[in-house]
Amino acid sequence: MTLQRDLKRARIVLLAADGRSTRSIAKEVGVQPRIVSVWRHRYADQGLEGLQDKPRPGKQPIYTKTTDKRILKLLDKPPPQGFARWTGPLLAEALGDVDVQYVWRFLRSHKIDLAARKSWCESNDPNFTAKAADVVGLYVAPPAKAIVLCVDEKPSIQALERAQGYLKLPNGRALTGQSHDYKRHGTTTLFAALEVATGKIIATHSKRRRRVEFLDFMNSLTAAFPGRKLHVILDNLNTHKKNESWLKAHPNVQFHFTPTSASWLNQIEVWFSILQGQSLSGTSFTSLKQLQEHIDAYVNAYNDKAEPFVWTKKKIRQRRFKGRRINQL
Rounded to 5 degrees, what are φ and ψ at 178? Predict the structure, then answer.
């Protein structure tokens, strides 16, 4: 496609070849007379090559790849004393000759987020693969005619009383809100079991989280499934272990422990996060009893529509953080 500027230059040359004056050419083409003079002389001196634009040096960039390397090198160092992490202004100040706006542009172009934080939990359990395969096997291929239960506790759920309501902002927008001030009405520990086959929850409240409360809850589970073989998935809490005498008295119950630092394999942890998000966050209670009744009502409502979780992970690997640089300050 021919550019409009090239067409104008060609018309100037052709009209000049017909003997037209500079002013008449300028009026017809729609440019200033001085522009016509420039291209007439350029064509007369250089021919067609004279109608091309000359190379322009342009403005030299202030910041180069060397600047980018300096920013990356600085990010590998600890932030200034007293600061938790680097920020754009801190980087610019440390560099001394780089504008903070360029620092931000560089970070965005490289998708470096200084505020975001990732956490990880690396299991050092030497039997990680075997334990993980055992737990996952219960999810994807449970033993015939057996009940698989995921059991754990959510301790110290606080009954906090807060003033709540709607806040109307000056722009007319209304938001739900709550007071920062609160009154404590005690805590409850929730013992819960998730039936893997149905997704339903069995839960009870307790004041404490000792071995005796745990075994009382296990007694209630065996009573809920009389004569059935129970496979119970637990984390490595001390009260969950060293219960050989109770297991000997209940031969139909078998405990399966998740690997060390891998309680996320226990599906009840997923349900606890659902409970927190849908039932407990942003609520207010005037008594401990009200909190307990509130949780019980949620459990009943959840069970009415409960569905089993679907295990989608296809492979379980024991892999360490090899080749990854982790700065320890």
Answer: -150, 160
Helix/strand number for the chain, H first, E second? 11, 5
Residue with tokens 């809490």: 237
Spatial separation of the C-alpha atoms in residues 147 and 137, rounded to whole Å: 13
- Return the axis-axis angle of helices 22-29 and 4-17, rounded to nearest 10°: 150
Which two tokens mark 319?
A: 């892999």
pLDDT tens column, 72-128: 999 999 999 999 999 999 999 999 999 999 999 999 999 999 988 776 677 888 888
Q: How far, in Å, CA of 48 to CA of 44, rounded?
A: 9
Any residues with CB less than 8 A from the CB of 276 and at least 6 apart, and which? none
**Cα–Cα distance, 127 to 291 (Å, whole number):** 40
**Digit-coded pLDDT (tens) for 317-327:** 555 555 554 44
Q: Return the number of other C-beta atoms located less than 10 Å from residue 154's C-beta.
A: 20
Report the predicted TM-score, pTM, of the whole model to 2 decimal places. Answer: 0.64
How far CA 163 is from CA of 183, 208, 231, 232, in Å, comes to 10, 28, 44, 41
Assess contact for 139 and 266: CB atoms under 8 A: no
Give the gyration radius of the chain's Cα atoms: 36
Half-sphere exposure of 69 (CA within 13 A, CB side): 3
